[in-house]
Specification:
The chain is about 70% helix and about 0% strand. With about 325 residues, it is an all-alpha fold. It is globular and about 60 Å long.
């Protein structure tokens, strides 16, 4: 590849990963509080539809993003209500909601299918966008892409450098102990479940207004929620590592497009679907490497074990477990 081709390739990865970064970081924050939100796939589709429909009707992109984020927060609020306060299975509630939200998105979004609507324009950062290689890769995008990069650093700082982040992680590890020390564990879990849902909804809005503009069936975001859930595990429940997983998946998607141009005789559907099994295969390799580093598998490529040691992490102690104050 030439220098220009590499620049375009990496710029495409950064731009394409933005909605997945929002979803993965949002779910990381939610799971850090001890709650699993399995509604991501349906939530992304619903928020993408709501964002596009709102911006189409109002001709206002800001309202589109706000409505998409709100849709994600509302779905997450339902997950929190049933799982945190009513004691229902987090897995069951999330799974039912992802199917329901997907069908609602296609049903209510049918009138907006294949319509041309507003989309976010590029907003290069003056001077920085002229820096060789780094400028086009990081500073020649639109506002949602910049926000996605900012969310990575802000979430890391909040989780590991603030008292509120310490409280969040304490609740996720042991809500009973946090409750005994005077912390309202359920309110904290509910708040961060909704916050994570808002970021997931923002990811859906980014899909339909930036990454794959418009609405239709298929939208192009199908399956992304499940990948985001896997990326959270891949990143060891750490926002920065989860974001790296999002960029890896975007890389696989971009390479699929590149290979499609190189081998036009191969059906396009093969390259569209390929990133999903490749990402799953990568996660399996990481899992095997983690088993090996822990003594379960003593043989294997050293480079995989080193990557696994970097990405490895343990799940919050109370993840998926309902908390009863009484």
């Amino acid at each position: 590849m030439t220098g220009l081709s590499l620049t375009i390739l990496f710029a495409s990865i950064v731009a394409g990963a933005a909605p997945i970064v929002f979803a993965a970081v949002g779910e990381t924050i939610t799971e850090k509080s001890g709650v699993i939100n399995l509604s991501l796939d349906g939530t992304i589709l619903l928020s993408a539809m709501v964002a596009f429909a709102t911006s189409y009707e109002t001709h206002n992109l800001l309202l589109g993003f706000l409505s998409g984020a709100t849709a994600g927060g509302l779905v997450a609020g339902i997950v929190g209500l049933f799982s945190i306060y009513l004691g229902q299975s987090q897995v069951a509630v999330g799974f039912v909601l992802t199917l329901t939200m997907r069908d609602l998105a296609y049903f209510f979004g049918n009138p907006y299918s294949r319509l041309y609507g507003p989309q976010v324009s590029p907003l290069p950062i003056p001077l920085l966008d002229r820096v060789p290689f780094l400028g086009p890769v990081f500073f020649g995008h639109n506002l949602p892409v910049y926000v996605s990069m900012l969310v990575i650093s802000l979430s890391w700082w909040y989780l590991y450098r603030t008292p509120m982040g310490l409280s969040l992680r304490a609740v996720g590890e042991n809500p009973e102990a946090a409750w005994a020390r005077g912390t309202d564990s359920r309110s904290i879990q509910m708040g961060y479940t909704v916050l994570g849902g808002l970021l997931v909804g923002l990811g859906g809005a980014t899909f339909s207004l930036c990454t794959k503009t418009g609405w239709g069936r298929p939208q192009g975001a199908e399956g992304t929620g499940w990948i985001a859930l896997a990326i959270v595990i891949f990143g060891g429940w750490h926002p920065v590592k989860a974001a790296l997983g999002a960029y890896l998946f975007a890389f696989l998607q971009v390479m699929g497009i590149q290979f499609q141009g190189m081998w036009p005789s191969v059906p396009a559907q093969v390259f569209q679907v390929a990133p999903f099994p490749l990402m799953i295969f990568t996660l399996i390799l990481m899992y095997l490497a983690q088993q090996g580093s822990g003594g379960g598998m003593r043989k294997g490529p050293v480079w995989i074990r080193r990557i696994s040691a970097f990405l490895g992490g343990s799940a919050p102690g109370a993840l998926g477990r309902a908390f009863r104050p009484e």
